[in-house]
Design goal:
- The protein has about 325 residues and is an alpha/beta fold.
- The chain has eleven helices and twelve strands.
- It binds pantoate.
- Pantoate binds next to helix 6.
Length: about 325
């Protein structure tokens, strides 16, 4: 399969590295100097017990890639709009785009920018991956990746399902165990609620995930934030297999030593995904007339940290 992975972050490099043996993979990086570097040095995926080097074609010029069958959109949520406006040269009738962002901020952008004719789906992955240098990924945890068509996407026709099935097979064949599910939005929201509970608080307290569970007050805020999000989700018809607060605690325990993606962003002085996670939740709640005081306070505090350490306000 000809595949374009957009974004050389942890997830982008992990997927490009996994897929490159059996597919024609391009990695798109907006930074030409880093694209050159990655082309020369390749990618390194370090897993428990072994590390693997691989070569992929990396470019900052998407016209060099041409149309592809599968686009894996792995940029941070805040970059989705800009990328969707630019990816025309990668798309034709055969293309499927899978958006793998955290949060829900990108959901309205996909139908709005891609229009009626594009075939796109959503993906939710629970792989634990950290970028420790350009093209260098620490792959800590495996997990199932789920993909599917949300109700807002144009079609659940046979051709779209065929494309998603092929994508799931290709990813699974590359060691990224992937399932095609009929209710992808439930999974997107289930992950959102975990991120709502964990990410902002780890950024505010500058601590690994597990430390959050050591303070009774912090646990109470986590639970309240997740509950606010659960009410919003239920109001729009999202259903959860397991209780979201229970899942959030479990994920926090299972990833106790991890530095959350939001804290990694703060430490690396990058913009965080607070707007796509707690921010987008607040906006959805406001549309529905539901209160979210705990999430509003989390957003306020993370933005204050961003303001204090960055110039990007
Ligand atoms: O964003 C993250 O860091 C992860 O989704 C999670 C589950 C919070 C673990 O660190």
């Amino acid at each position: 399969m000809k595949i374009a992975v957009i974004g050389p972050g942890a997830m982008g490099c992990l997927l490009a590295g996994a897929l490159c043996d059996a597919n024609k993979v391009w990695l798109l990086d907006h930074n030409p100097d880093r694209a050159d570097l990655l082309n020369r040095q390749g990618l390194v995926i370090e897993e428990i017990g072994h590390s693997r080097s691989c070569r992929v074609n990396v470019t900052a010029d998407l016209r060099q890639i041409g149309p592809v069958e599968l686009i894996l959109l792995c940029v941070k949520a805040g970059k989705v709009k800009e990328v969707l406006h630019a990816i025309g040269p990668l798309c034709n009738q055969e293309s499927l785009l899978l958006a793998l962002q955290n949060g829900i901020g990108h959901l309205p952008l996909l139908p709005e920018i891609l229009g009626d004719s594009a075939c796109w789906g959503l993906g939710v992955t629970s792989h634990g991956a950290t970028l420790i240098g350009p093209g260098y990924v620490l792959h800590k945890g495996q997990g199932i990746t789920r993909i599917g068509l949300p109700t807002e996407s144009i079609s659940t026709d046979a051709k779209s399902i065929e494309k998603l099935t092929a994508a799931a097979q290709t990813l699974t064949g590359a060691g990224i165990q992937t399932e095609l599910v009929p209710d992808i939005l439930n999974h997107v929201w289930a992950k959102l609620l975990v991120n709502v509970g964990i990410n902002a608080l780890t950024a505010i307290h500058d601590c690994p995930n597990g430390v959050l569970l050591e303070s009774v007050e912090t646990v109470a805020i986590m639970e309240a934030a997740v509950l606010e999000a659960k009410h919003v989700a239920e109001k729009i018809g999202i259903t959860f297999g397991d209780d979201p607060w229970h899942v959030t605690r479990q994920v926090c325990l299972a990833t106790a030593a991890n530095i959350s993606s939001m804290l990694q962003d703060i430490r690396a002085r990058r913009p965080t995904e607070i707007e796509a996670i707690n921010g987008a939740l607040i906006r959805k709640a406001a549309e529905l007339g539901l209160p979210t005081p705990v999430n509003e306070e989390l957003v306020r505090k993370v933005k204050e940290i961003e303001r204090n350490i960055h110039d990007f306000t």
